[in-house]
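Review session, final week

We close the course with one last complete record, chosen because it touches almost every idea we covered. It is FAD-binding FR-type domain-containing protein, a protein from Glomus cerebriforme with 1305 residues. Go through it on your own first, then we will talk.
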Amino acid sequence: MTSTTQQSSSLIVGWRLQGRHVLIIGGNQVASNRIEFALIAKPRKITLITPYNNISSDKIREHITKKNVTYKDSEFKAIDLFENYNSPVDLVLSAVDDHKLSEKIAAAAREKRIPVNIAELPHLCDFWFMPTYHDELLQVAISTSGTEPQIARKLRQHIIENLPQNITTAIENMTYLKQNLGNTNISALTKITDTLPLSQLAQLSKDDIKTLVNKFTTINVDDEETEVSSTSDSTENSDVTILDERQDIGSTLKSKLIDVNGNDIISSFTSGGIQLVDGKTAVEHIAYAFSTVSFIYPTTRTHYVGEAAFNWASQNVRNVFGQLSQVIKMDTRYGASAAILGTTTHSRLDRLDSTSIFTTSQSIVPMVPNFYSIVQEKIPLVIHVSALGCDNQMNNYVNYNDALIARETGFGIINSYSSQEIHDIALITHLVSISTKIPFLHVFDGLRTSLELFKVNLLPYDEIKKLIGEIKSLPNSSTENSIILDYIEMIANKVGKLTGRQYHAFEYIGDPNAESIFVVLGGETVITKEVVKRISNGGKKVGVIIVRVYRPWSEKHFLAVVPKTVKRIAVLEQVVSKEDYSFGSSIFNDIAVSFSSNIWMGKRPILVDAKYPTTQKFSPNIIYALLQQLEFKENIIFNEELLLEKIDIPLTNNNVKQCLFWDSEAQRTIQTAKHISKILENHSQLNLSTFSTFDIYNNGGVVTTNLQLGNDIISGFQDIESGYDFISIHDVSLTNKFNTLALAKSGAIVVINTSWTVDELETKLPNDFRYEASKRNVKLYILNSEKIAQDVGLNLEVVINVIFQSTFLRLFSYVVKLDCSLEDAVIDFFEGNNEKEVPLLIRSVCQQLEKSLISVELPPTWGILEKSDQSLPLTIQSNSLDRNLDQPEVEKPKLMNWHTTAKNLLFKEAYKFNEEIRPDLPEKTYVIHVSENRRLTPPSYDRYLFHIEFDITGTDLKYDLGEALGVYGHNDSEEVNQFLEFYGLNPNDVILIPNKGDNFESRTIFQIFTQVLDLFGRPAKRFYDSLAQYATDEKEREKLLWIASNEGSQEFKHRVEDTITYAEILYEFSSAHPPVEDLVQLIAPIKPRHYSIASAQSVHPNSVHLLVVTVEWENSKGIKRFGQCTRYLAGLKVGERVTVSIKPSVMKLPPRDSQPVIMAGLGTGMAPFRAFIEERAYRKAQGKEVGPMILYFGSRHRSMEYLYGEELEAYNIEGLLTHLRLAFSRDQKNKVYIQHKMQDDAELLHQYLLKDEGWFYLCGPTWPVPDVKDAIVNSFITAGGLSSGQAADWVNKLKDLERYILEVY
């Protein structure tokens, strides 16, 4: 079946499976279908490869049992394709769920030239499966030349419905005819089939067939028929059948830098040299050299540190010792890094390799418990930490705070601040670690430095091997900090002599007689260094100390670089929360102690503890303003006033040119700047850096790429305040969403990709774009990339990057100064099936570009425009490290009437309709019934606390002590109906929501707005931005965009404080009326609220109990607000159904029943302890000996909030609850809290916790945590005679042993 299209063409092939060896990989239903498919074709052999525990299809297990397949219980390896010379694999059918494994399978198959099909990943396939109809001997394949699969299914159904009933008999008769005629009489077979209709062919008997054979074989066949016979015979045993022979020219042009999935191709650089790489690749080059085993703890799907090393290992690249390296991906969870202990515990101490870990700072926290053991074991280990975090708005930030949490573990901590430094410091750190056996954290900026492309001088592996041999003779046995740092500097000096780059534990930049100094360690370092360097050159007495080696801390080395003239020192350090502001920062404390030592002989300077939040951005203006504050106010305050300061010394390096590329993901132009950078690396003498910022959540996905280039060394920070020399806007719609020219220099070159004519720019370009263009007198160019692609006869997706690379190199030729022609520079980085075609294709694009690039003379009318009141963002927020990997469109929700669901319910099997409980949720859920709901506080009391019980009979719900019940609350029905009426929705209409695979969830409008969507919840900022796209009222649209912008942050903050809901926003901006199909995707789902379970299942086998307090308050406008779930629970009646799930908890009883249990519960924090007490009572009733229990319970009033008071008193009288300590804070003049009761029990706490190995638990709000900890520390001091340091260490040890457990909120 063939078809023609104007836009593309295809080559469709099919393989004969009979007598072949088919390899099938995977254990899911798709793999099962492929086994069935292959079995019908009667291949010589079917091999199935998948781990047995990955098999999810019962049919596959049946095939294995029946030996229909040769089964191999393992993951796929490349050797599986050619394990047996007598039975090579002829065809690979893969159905694995792992994207990376799919890539590996495809690459291995292609290397062996074996046809491969990868399920659901067409870009990795050599061929695809067509929808087929199969009826014994008849198999019909339907191709629609790449159009929608739904059309193919319709065609298949049409064929099935219109096939004659006797079709199979006709095919059997044709087979018998062919056997009797033989291969040499194909023309006779053609004549028989042409003269007989299908119905008559089906009715032929064997005798009839023999008669026909005799008749037609006596007829002479002419020359033409003989030729047909020859042609037919030649294809009879062919492996490939050509169905549609057309050539796809566009597919012959592809980038050498990007793989089929759009990811960067990163080669190994064992021979070293100057290479254009990012920081993470530079560090991987060094770590791979030293390591036989490396572990990756990725926190992102792509662009994680270790990704290149993982690929090098799969390519069998060898390290400096000539060994193959293992690079293993791990999951980040509590106790991460334990694998290091298992891998290296039995290693020899004299070995010269080290182990590497690649991770982000977010993964350090769960690793810390194992760090102490790693230090004790003296394991040579370097953890390369990309300092990266993500806030609650999904925005990325440089996160040093989490990495530095390891400061007291005994690990060394060393920092890098540029791509070259990352390479050099990684080298120094590995050398130090293998010689001292001290494990190190090597920390670097994970947001910019890790990802920014720079020219880095990579050391060859043979040079590294020489260095390793040289350090064996150096002394390395001391444990004293200053001596260790001397040793580090000794190795750094040795490396420096080789590379020409010197590093020290602390590095000073600035005036040698400086009076004001910053100390920096973090994301602010590079920009602070550059600003101070330029300001001090201008005569100001300022300086900066860069902390290179933070641990071990050496007072001697720090004070050695401090100018004796210093009067003021500000210590900049990042903190996560406001609570951290009240404590002296760790670096600040180290410095304060250093100046108190007898090493410092000068006058003690004023020390300023300058903490800043994770959201703080740094620019030259801000650094300068901070210096001004330090110099004149002797204080540092981070606020908006910093931006008002003006720099009176120029910071701009006019020799560095800055370029900005605006891309939308839809345009597929993201790789343009990467290609330009590689071209400049090979064909220009310029220094350069390239860095992309990704916002995948807003405006359909936007990417900006900054390219800096010049003869001078690029400083490492982008001074955007100096403006851009070249701006390329690849999607003209972005001019409506961003102020794309606000940062342009006067006279900048600006390129717009658009189909608009010059005359149309006047009416279609936004007012502010035209205003800025005129104000800055830009050189404006427009081009139509789609038309260029059409004119050269190529697919736009293939050539769009070629178009914009060529545009930049042409318009900026006076800066880049290539050493070859523009066309030749571009050609170097593309390839195709026909290498002779590639230069021709690219030259034709460049020639067409010359004709199509239009210079626009700015109309005089643009010069009289005034700037509008609209405030568009200048830049985008970083919320990803890569493009959106989930870019392919998914099915959208569909609105239907109730008849559809009724039909599905009536004919469940026909429509494959199933009833499930919340199929949208990943966790297992249960439907349980309310059996009791009673208020515990008096009706007159202003707080509503209640006890609620659920009957779980008939469910398989099981819960352990300390676990929480996740409740999926409903919105108020009356409020939902009110909203639906306002929005014009019929509550009984049905909406279909896409779920896994091709499935849809069916719910009424009322159900989804009541049970699923958080309609009365508080939206994130991006909801305002998304809603603006639907606003028809211009003022409403502008206000929504303003609230979503940085300028509207204060307004958004007020709205958050007032809990303005989704519903209220839709009421307020009534012109923004998304269709319900879109609205259900814009509103976040209701999240389960988790409540600690207040019962033991051993005592209540068929019920689960909760202790809940309703949450309600008034906002600033006096509007009442309610906690969605507590309001729902409080209103439940006996017998009503509730959907729940179970969430595990760290709150567990001690392993031995005899161990003491100390519980501290505030208010509803009492819940898990009621369960603890019930469980201990149950075990005691079983005759087991149980240890003492103390309960410290706190609430406001005994008469109002003594929760479960009668039960507690009974347990206390019985002796199970050994000590009952009650703190009712408002029953007396002076407030009494649980920590006061604990202070009175110093002897008891010391006895139970330290001597009797008891466990301590705190459940409730966070505020008493410090006081409770102090009470325990004081008990160890007063009753145990420990020093304050020893007591604090004991509390930390209890935490590590999981005997000090907090569940606070």
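Two points worth writing down before the exam:
The chain has a mean pLDDT of 82.
The first strand starts at residue 11 and ends at 12.
Good luck, everyone.
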